[in-house]
Amino acid sequence: MAKYRNLLVAIDPNQDDQPALRRAVYLVHQLGGSIKAFLPIYDFSYEMTTLLSPDERTAMRQGVISQRTAWIEEQCQHYLSSGVPIEIKVVWHNRPFEAIIQEVIAHQHDLVLKMAHQHDRFESVIFTPTDWHLLRKCPCPVWMVKDQPWPEGGKALVAVNLSGEEPYHDPLNVKLVTETLALAKQVNQTEVHLVGAYPVTPINIAIELPDFDPSVYNDAIRGQHLIAMKSLRQKFQLDEKFTHVEKGLPEEVIPDLAEHLDAGVVVLGSIGRTGFSAAFIGNTTELVIDHLKCDLLAIKPDDYVSPVTLEGGDRYE
């Protein structure tokens, strides 16, 4: 049974073309299910109209919501007339990411799709603060859709962590591969590749320890990662030609391989670090994301709990 059937599309309020909606419609055609076209809007100037009564301010807000709802209906008209089930919902909310996540929680959406903007001079994708909040805090998978057609024969590249340093790495790897293979089978038999990056020899160790042999160290680390990758691919009966173990930083290896394969989407695990943890430890996932030139699907571990709640909003920044 298809996993992604209750889709929420975050509508971009600044343009008529909606790539995320197109991708959602494609998924519904392949998997079945339904779409909610969702737009949180807020205009501070309406809150500043102190000369108006509360009822008049409410009426003004409702007028804006009605206008935006009619505008989204225009964008969806072709899909609606062809029988695609799309619900349109516009809410007044001053924190778009919070409104989206609360909608996900309240209505148990299993996938959020949002357009990722592209830099004018480069092919890389630009992520807004709302994008980052969704990638860190949304409990369901988030698909950032680049404004370009899916490459002919486009592949899915799953980034796995083969170091096994944390207890959540192995189950998250299995979840990433399982969900990607299931989706690829249901959507056009997309080819799935796995990639893992291993670190180069730390320069300070090589300098401080005269007897240290970098080549032996590199071989040992690579061997560990190859064994871990072999175990993972055998679990899913994947051919070795679809697995890649490369030396270097993940934020360099993964985007480079995605470009080489002409991947349509990179699938990443996001553990959703926020606050001091994200600031001081850093988040490899986010470094990788910053270098991507294709779609991104970010998936959380099974035990992830969003800091955003229905009652209190975001518990921490």
UniProtKB/TrEMBL annotation:
Whether Cytoplasm counts among this entry's keywords is yes
> Mind telling me which Pfam families this protein's record contains?
Usp
Q: Which organism is it from?
A: Acerihabitans arboris
Official protein name in the record = Universal stress protein E
NCBIfam families linked:
PRK11175.1
Give the function comment from the record: Required for resistance to DNA-damaging agents.
Q: Does the keyword Plastid apply?
A: no
Please state where this protein is localized.
Answer: Cytoplasm
Q: Which GO terms describe its cellular component?
A: cytoplasm
Keywords carried by this UniProt record: Cytoplasm
UspA domain sequence ranges: 4-146, 175-300
Q: InterPro entries from the entry?
A: UspA
Specify the taxonomic lineage. Bacteria, Pseudomonadati, Pseudomonadota, Gammaproteobacteria, Enterobacterales
Similarity comment text for this entry: Belongs to the universal stress protein A family.
Residue ranges annotated as transmembrane are none
